[in-house]
Structures are given as C-alpha cells and as structure tokens.
Amino acid sequence: NAGVTQTPKFQVLKTGQSMTLQCAQDMNHEYMSWYRQDPGMGLRLIHYSVGAGITDQGEVPNGYNVSRSTTEDFPLRLLSAAPSQTSVYFCASSDRDRTEYFGPGTRLTVT
Amino acid sequence: TQLLEQSPQFLSIQEGENLTVYCNSSSVFSSLQWYRQEPGEGPVLLVTVVTGGEVKKLKRLTFQFGDARKDSSLHITAAQPGDTGLYLCAGASGYSTLTFGKGTMLLVSP
User: Fold this and answer.
1) CA gap A58, A47 in Å, rounded
2) How far is CA B59 from CA A38, B15, B18, B79, in A?
3) A76 FRET partner, CA 20 to 30 A, in A8, A45, A98, A108?
4) Does A98 touch chain B (CB under 8 A)?
5) Which of A99, A101, A106 to probe by mutation at the B interface, max B CB count within 10 Å?
6) How many CA atoms lie within 13 A of B107 on its CB side?
7) Rounded-to-integer distance, Cα A8 and Cα B90, Å
8) How many helices (H) and strands (E) does chain A have?
C-alpha cells in the first residue's frame, strides 16, 4: 500500500494564480482532511470530508475549495493564491479509530 | 473551542538525558494521540491513549493519560539522536475533528 500520496512536493506560485493540490489514499478510509502547518501555529484544519460527496469546513477554510467525488481522492484548490497561503500542506486520511495517516506534504510558496 | 497546550515548545538536550513533554487542556477528551514528525515528512502516530490514568510504553517512551482525561505526558528515557523531531499531541472528542497542540521540538545532540 502506498498510503497517502500528495503531489506536487514543492510549488511556487505568483499572487493571484490558482492551482490544485492532489491527494490520494489507498486504504479505503472514509475520512480525509487537509491541514496547513506554519511555524508556531501547529497543524490547522482547512477542510475535511467524512465520505464521498460530503465535505465541511475546518478552522481556516477561506481561500480554499475541496471536493470528494471518490473515496480515494481529495483535491484542495487554491482559488487565487495569496502570500498568506505560503505554508506546508498535509493531506491525511483516517479510519474510525481517528488515527490520522498523513501524506508527505506539499511545500507551497506564494510570491 | 477546545485547546491543547504543549510544553515546552522547544527542548535541546544531550544524548542519554531523560525528558518529559506535557500536553494540557481544560477540556475532556475521549482519547489522546501522540505523533512524531521528522523534518520534511508528515506526522506519524506513536500511540493512542483512551482510558483515564492509562500508561503505555513504547521502548524508551512512556505515555500517560491523566485521570480526568484532560492532559497527557510523554517521557523519554535515555534520549538518542534518533528521537529528534517534532512531537504533537492530538485530542479526539465525540464526532468532532481532532484538536492538535502546537508541538514540542526536540533536539538530541550526540
């Protein structure tokens, strides 16, 4: 099993550009989440999904969109990138015991 | 809003020393998880504690869940350079999403 995979690993965007961060899991987990990690701020939840077709907002959802058309995939879209979105983004999936399995992360810089 | 406070934020020690990291909250959690994150990687689960007063051991790491299920500690005996990393606690409560602490960065020097 590959677990949780994320692409790309690194990305540089200019202010105003849009992009999609890809996330896939092969563990058949119902729950998937997107977090951002910033120095001194810990992991903050952006959006999450409890199953295909169901998504909800987390702590810091502004500027991001998600969709969940399949159990395996949970892409995160940045609509119009801003320097404040410079961060490391982690996708995670979890089973019913709430253990989060994290991907390797995407390091995003917005200039 | 549930909060988890971790202390200390940063710890730099020599190989062979013992240390304790704390995770405290005013809220009750049904379970508490500890993760370790190495540079450039995602966090990886170390342990989950679910019962008040529970103690779990993982080699040189000892995890304890407070009797009231509001706090937890991680004790490392005879730390090694391989223990270096960011240690995160996360609390689960009902059907809500996990609450993460901000982490303790541990540096163990040879």
Assistant:
1) 5
2) 31, 16, 14, 11
3) A98
4) yes
5) A99
6) 6
7) 27
8) 0, 11
Q: What is d(CA B71, CA A3) in angstroms, rounded to the nearest whole number?
A: 30
Q: Which of B99, B46, B63, B26 is nearest to A42 (CA)?
A: B99
Query: What is the tens place of the pLDDT at every residue in A10-52?
Result: 999 999 999 999 999 999 999 999 999 998 888 999 999 999 9
From residue B52, alpha-carbon distances to A49, B23, B62, B63, B70 in Å are 30, 14, 15, 12, 9
A96 in contact with chain B, both atoms CB, cutoff 8 A: no
Question: Using CA atoms, how far apart are residues B80 and B101, in angstroms rounded to an integer?
Answer: 24
Q: Give the contacts of B28 (CB within 8 A, at least 6 positions apart).
A: B68, B69, B70, B93
The number of helix segments (H) and strand segments (E) in chain B equals 0, 11
Task: Kindly determine whether residue B31 and residue A4, on different chains, have CB atoms separated by under 8 Å.
Answer: no
Question: Is domain B5-109 annotated with CATH 2.60.40.10?
Answer: yes
Q: Where does B1-54 show beta strands of DSSP type E?
A: 5-7, 10-14, 19-24, 31-37, 44-49
User: What Cα–Cα distance (Å) separates residue B36 from each residue in A13, A21, A105, B41?
Assistant: 30, 24, 15, 10
How many Cβ pairs closer than 8 A exist between chain A and B?
45
- Residue contact A90–B48, C-beta within 8 A: no
Chain A (6-45) residues lying within 8 Å, Cβ to Cβ, of chain B: 33, 40-43, 45
Please state the domain extents for chain B: 5-109
Q: What confidence score (pLDDT) does residue A40 get?
A: 84
